[in-house]
Design goal:
- The chain is mainly β.
- The protein folds into three domains: 1-118, Thrombin, subunit H; 119-233, Thrombin, subunit H; 238-341, Lipocalin (Beta Barrel).
- The protein has one helix and 31 strands.
- The chain has one helix at residues 121-124; strands at 2-6, 13-18, 40-42, 45-49, 55-59, 65-69, 85-87, 90-96, 101-107, 113-118, 139-143, 146-152, 156-160, 167-172, 183-185, 188-192, 196-197, 203-210, 216-217, 223-229, 238-240, 243-247, 252-257, 263-268, 278-280, 283-287, 292-297, 304-309, 319-321, 324-328, 333-336.
- Strands 11-12-13-14-19 form a five-stranded mixed beta sheet, with no helix packed on it. Strands 15, 16, 17, 18 and 20 form a five-stranded antiparallel beta sheet that branches.
- Strand 27 (292-297) and strand 28 (304-309) form a beta hairpin.
- It is globular.
- It starts with a strand and ends in a 5-residue tail after the last strand.
């Protein structure tokens, strides 16, 4: 399992490091990879995560490994997916499998465990074993001057104190894995729940809008609106100027009013969209597994600016930095920018 450093200007490989060399490779889902988790980076250091195979800190200048951990384990069943998250001096690591559902805060300088919290077992014990796993990445929001870490597990979305790992509030809903990240805008938290089974026996998920002020179980009081959605939601919505943009797992692109949940407009797309939409410079970028990217003008009217296709499938969300777009397909890493930049 390798960590690769590429020169931003030229695309030349600077470091090509074997970070972990496991004796055994465990099974994964067909649409997953062994390098799905996104790394966390800051000046001078990058933090690499391969799920049960290991977590490491690498000096970006020298390529030397500062520290590594291989003792943080869970049974992913279908491979890892949760990405790393930096908070002050802590590296937040989610390890939620069928056996344990743990969240770690590691000292980013040494890799030592600062705190470890476990999802509430009274919610997980009744669940079918396969449903206990999750692949989410948390977010940090500020509520009344206090930082909260919003982490959406398979049985409940929970707000934690990121300094201690203590639970602040929870919203209980779900029977199986969550993948999509929460997102926050204008004091409202939005997230896709795990799926549930309706009275008719059909499974569905929901998109929730939540007021994050509260303590304990806030499910009966703080859900502002909810929209029924298909199961297996992989991508994370994006919110711009009070409008929420998302593509559900059946390829329906929607623009919703962030305050009411009402549909502003919608459009059925061809193909599958597992890469999250991203906003930059007035536009929304949405990439499909076919390798195509639709560029939409953000706003209450649907306006397609362009559509472009790259060689290979796109599963990863693009990154915007230094006046350029970095896009990773199943075949290549691309840098897209204006001529001369």
């Amino acid at each position: 399992m390798r960590s690769i450093c590429v020169d931003f200007k030229t695309g030349e490989i600077i470091h090509n490091l074997i970070t972990f060399h496991p004796d055994t490779l465990y099974r994964k889902h067909s649409i997953n990879s062994y390098a799905t988790p996104t790394s966390a980076i800051e000046e001078g250091f990058i933090y690499i995560h391969f799920g049960r195979y290991g977590t490491a800190c690498i000096d970006t200048r020298t390529g030397e490994t500062v520290w590594k951990r291989t003792d943080i384990q869970c049974e992913h069943i279908q491979g890892s997916g949760s990405s790393l998250f930096l908070y002050n001096e802590k590296l937040i690591v989610h390890m939620e499998g069928t056996d344990v559902q743990h969240i770690y805060a590691l000292d980013k300088k040494t890799g030592e465990t600062i705190w470890l919290t476990e999802r509430p077992q009274e919610l997980y014990d009744p669940m079918v074993t396969i449903g206990k796993k999750a692949y989410i990445t948390p977010i940090i929001i500020k509520v009344n001057g206090r930082d909260l870490m919003i982490s959406n597990g398979s049985a409940a979305c929970i707000a934690y104190d990121p300094e201690t790992g203590a639970e602040v509030w929870r919203i209980i809903q779900g029977e199986d894995s969550t993948i999509s990240m929460p997102v926050e805008s204008n004091g409202i938290v939005y997230f896709y729940t795990a799926f549930v089974t309706g009275e008719d026996g059909k499974k569905y998920a929901e998109l929730f809008a939540v007021d994050p002020n509260g303590k304990g179980d806030i499910g009966a009081t703080n859900i502002l609106w909810r929209v029924k959605s298909p199961i297996l939601q992989l991508l994370t919505p994006v919110v711009v100027d009070g409008l929420l943009y998302t593509v559900n797992s059946q390829g329906l692109l929607m623009c919703l009013d962030g305050e009411t949940g009402e549909t502003v407009w919608s459009k059925k797309l061809k193909g599958k969209y597992n890469s999250s939409p991203i906003y930059a410079d007035g536009n929304i970028y949405i990439s499909s597994t076919r390798g195509s990217t639709i560029v939409l003008k953000a706003g209450p009217e649907i306006e397609i600016v362009s559509e472009n296709t790259l060689d290979g499938e796109i599963w990863a969300t693009p990154a915007f930095t230094g006046g350029a777009i970095l896009m990773r397909t199943s075949k290549f890493l691309y840098k897209l920018s204006k001529s001369g930049s």
